[in-house]
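Re: weekly structure request thread

Next one in the queue (1062 aa):
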Amino acid sequence: MANEKRRNKKKKTHRQFTMWLLIDALISCSFLCFWSFSLMPTVSALASSSSSSFLAPSEVNTCDISEFRCPSKDGQGTLCLPMDRWCNGKDECDNRVDEPRSCTICNRTYYARLGSTYRLSLVRPRMSGTTQILPWNCWFNFTALGGHHGDRVLVGMEAFSVGQLHRSENGSLCLGGQVVQRDASSTPADTDVVHGGDQIITGAWCGEGWGQPITTSAGKWLQLMLTISDVVDLSRFRFDLTYRVVRADTGNLSPSTSAVISTTSAAGNNGSGSSSAILWYGDPVPGTLCSRNLHSCDQRTCILQSPNFPGLYPRNVTCYYYIRQAWSPKNQTILLTLVQSEPGQSFSVRTSDAGEKERKMMSGRECRTRVDDTVSIYNGATIESPLLARLCGTGNMPHITGAGGELLVVFRSQPHDAPFNPAPLGASPGFRLTTRVRFVAANQVRQYHPECRISITSSGSNSRRSQRQGIIRSPEATMAPNTSCLYEFTGREDQRVWMTFLSYRLDGGEDGDCLTMTDGQELVSRQCGAAVQPRICPHALVHANSSTAYKPCRWQDGESYLSRSPRFTIRQELATGTAIRPWSFVIRFEFITVDRFSPKEQLIAGQVKETLVHGGGGGTMTGVTESPEASAGDDDDQQLTSQMMTPDCFQLLESSKGNGSVSSPRNPLLYGRGGSRHLRCLYRFQAGKGEHTHLTINPFHSTGCARFNQSGCQACLSVDEVFWGGRVRRRSYHTCRSLSGNNPVVLQSAASSLELIFEVRDMNWAQDDDHFYFVAEYSFSRGIDPLCWDSHQQTGKRGNLRIDPRDRCVRHSIPWHIQAPRGGYIILVFPAGQASITKTIEGCPTNNRLFVYSITDGKTQLYREVCLMAGSLQLAQGGDKTSSQQPLNLYSAGWSERNWMADGLLVVASLQGVPIPDETPLIVTWLSVFKDVTSKSLSFAARQSVHGANASQMVCRTGCPALGACLSSDLWCDDREDCPDGSDEKQCIRLVFWPLYVGLVVILLSLTAGLVAVYLVHRYYQARRYTANGRTYKPRPKEKKAKFSSVTVSLTRHYEKGGPGS
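Done, posted below.
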C-alpha cells in the first residue's frame, strides 16, 4: 500500500514537471516569434541605419540589433531599449511589453555597440513548492557582428556564486552547478574535455568568484552555459554579468590572426625601441584549441599568451607553444629567453590555495600538477627534454632562458575552478610572454648542458698570465630542478689553482642546494641551504673590469682558495632549480706555477749558511764590463740584505746534475699581486772540483717599476762569486736595468760556487711575474788545476803575484787572496812603468786589468782598477819618463783612513788586451806593513809630510820613510830590500863566517856534555862503596835473617868492635 502511494506521488510529480516544461516552451516560442517579426525591418535596414540614442523615439520605427523595440503609448513611434533592459524587473515601456509574464534573460543571443557596457542579472531558479526544477540550464550567446558592433566580446562576472567547488589531492570537482564557456575557437575536435571513468567531464567554473574577473572571446562570439544539476543551497546563488564589444586591435587581446602590426613602441630582441613592430603569435596547430608554433623570433617579436588573454583562460585546456630558432651565426649558439611583455603586467596562473595563502610565484614541487594550473618550460622540443621550470601562482615571472634553439612551453589548466581576478587589481589572469633571441660563443654552451659540467685546463706553465687565468660567471640559462653543476680546474703537475669568489648569490636556498669544494681528493668545504657562503673578495669585483690595482685577495686572510694539488673542483647542487631562486656567481681563477725550489734547510747546513750572512760588494767579473750602477747600488744592496736575510726562494744547482736553465719564480703569490711587497730569490750554482761555471742571462725584464713607480719600486739582478768555502765572496755583476734578447750577459767563473740573486722590493698590488722576470742558462766545464786555489791563497809578511799569461791559474781568472796581518795592512808594489791607476776606460791603452778588491768581514768591494801595460806603451802616450820609472805602490783599504783597516785584498787579473812584451811575467810584490804609532790617527798625506825621508822621526825601529810605514821585523835585515830606499838593509851587522861560529858552538856543547856525563857516572859508583878499618869493601851479598827479629846478627863470626855488623 505504501509503495503504491509512493508510485502515485512520483507519477503526479512527473506530470507537473512535464506540464511546466510545456508551458515554458510555449511562452518562449511565442516570445521568440514576436521578437523575430518585430526585428525583421531592423535587420533589413541594418546596413544603412545609424546608431540612435537609447530610449529615444525612432523616426523610422526601427531599432538596432542590440536594442529592444518598445512601442509608445500613443502609437506614434517606438522606443529602442538596450538589450539588457529586457526582463530586468522594471517597466521601461510603461505597458510592460518588456516585462512579459515568465520572461527570462536565459537562452538568448546578445549584441552590443562599441562604447557601451551592458549588465545582466540572473535570479535564482524557480521553485515549485519545495521542489527545485532540476536539472536547470541557462545559456547566453554574446555576438560581435563587426563594425560598430565590435569584433570581440568581453564578459565580466561582477557576482558569481554557482554550485560548490570541491578540492582534494586528486583534483577539483563542481558539485550542484557549473558554468561552461565556449567560443568561436571551440570545435568538437578540440581536446577540452577529459575522461573520468565512464563519464566525460567538461571544464567549468563553479563556487564563488571574486575580483570581478573578465573573460574574452577568441572570435566573434562567446557562449556561457549555466547548469544547476543537484540540490544545493541556492540562497547564495548569484550570477551578475557585464558584457561589451571591442575592436580586435584593442589592448593585448588575443589576436584572431597569427601576426599583427603594433603601432606602439615595442622593444625588439636586441632591446632597442621602435615605433612599430611585428607581433607574431605563431601558427595555430590544426585540431587544437590554443597550441601554436613559433619560429624565426630573431626577426620579429614572438608572443606567447594564455587563451582568451587578458580574460579568464578556459578550464581543462592544454596548450603547447613550440619555439624554434634554426639560424645562428657561425661558431655561436642560441639562447632563447622568455620574459614578460610589459614590466607592469603580472604572471597569474591559478593555484588551488590561491585564496587561502598570500599570492606569490611558485615553482617546482610547489606547483602540484594534479590540483594547480601550471606552465612548464622544457629545454627542447618534447616533454622528455630537460624541465627548466614549472611555474604557477601570481607575481613577476623571472627570465627563463634555454640553450640550443628549441623551447617547449606547456600550459595546463585544471577542469574546475572558481573565476578569479589576480591581485593587484587591474592585472590579468594568465600570461603574456615575449621571446628574445641571443647568440653567444659556442664554447659557452657547455654551461647550459643538462649535466652542467665545465672542465677548465691550464694552457701551459710558460704561458702568459692572460692565458693562465680567467673569469667564470654563472650560466645565463635557467637551471632545471635537481641539476648539479660541476666546475673542474685542472692544471699541470707543477701548478696550483688560485680561486676567488668575487660574488655569490643563491636566494632562498633549501637543504638540497649544496656547494661542495674539493682539493684533489680532499674535501675543502660543504655548505647547504641558507648557510651557503663561500669565501668572498668583494673589493676585487669593483675592479674586475678595470686596470687599476686593487688589494690582493689573500688566501691567508680568508678571501680566496689555494689548492694543494693541481685539481680543484666546485660542485653546486640545485634542488629547486634557478627559475624562482636566482643563482649567480663570479669566480676569478688562475693557474699558478709552484717552482721546484730546493729545501731551505740547505741554507742552514754547511757553507750555505755563510752566503746569507755576507751580502757581497760591487765588482766586475773577468770578461764582463762593470755595470755603471754596481757601485752606486752598494748602499741599497746592503740595506736590502739587512731587511731580507732569508730568501723567499732558494735553488741549489749542482754540477753532478748536469747543465740546464733557471728562471724567475712564476708564482704570483710571491709578488705584489699575491700580497708580498719584497722578493728575494737565491740560485746557487755549485761547481765540482776543478770546474768552471758558465752563466748566460737573457733576458732580464724589470719594466714594471717604470710603469708603477709610485712607491720606489726596484728590481735588480746580481751575481756573486764565493771563494774558499764562503770565506770570501765577490759581487761580479749587478744591474737594475732590463736586458733585451739581443744583448745577453755571458759570465764565466772559476769560483767553487756562483750565486745569482734576484731581488724586487716595494712592489704594488698590480705587479707579478709579468713585470719582473729573467731567464738564465748555466753549464759546467772542467779544466782548472785544483792546486791553483792553494797557491793563490797567500798569508805572511811578504809574497809575490806572478801574472803570467801562460799560467793556467791566471788564464782561468783564479784570484789571489792576500790576508793582512792582525792590525796591519797590505801594500802592492808594481814594477816601474808596468802599471798605473786608471779611473776611465780611455786612461788605459790596453784591456789588461788588475782588479783589486778590499775584504772586510768576508765581503769584497772594488777598491782599485790597475792598468797593466809596458813601459814603452806608457811613454808613447806622452807620459813623464821620470814618473813612469817610479814603482807603483798600492796600499790596502783603510790606510788613508783614520782608525779603519781591511782584512785583506782580493786580486783578480784580466788579460784581454795587448800582451806583455816578450811574454815576460809581471811580478807584483806585496808586503805586510803597519802604521807608525805616532801617526795612526793621521791621514796618509799628513804622515808623509811629518816623516818625509827621515827614519829617525819614526817611533818604530823598522820604519820605512819611503813608504811611510813600519815593516815587519821579519823583513828587516833579511838580505832583501823591501823598502824602496833600502833602509831595511843598510843598518845591519853582517856575520861573514857564521858557519865557523856555529861549529865552535857545537864542539863546546859536546865537550861540556861529555864531562857532565863522566862526573855523573863516578858519583854513582862512589855512592855504592863503604870503608871499615881503613879498607874499602864492596857491598855484601844478602844473608838470611832470623825470623821474628828486627836486628840482623851474624851467626858465624864473632862480634868485633868497629867491624862489619857493628
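The chain has a mean pLDDT of 75. The longest helix spans residues 2-44.
Next request, please.
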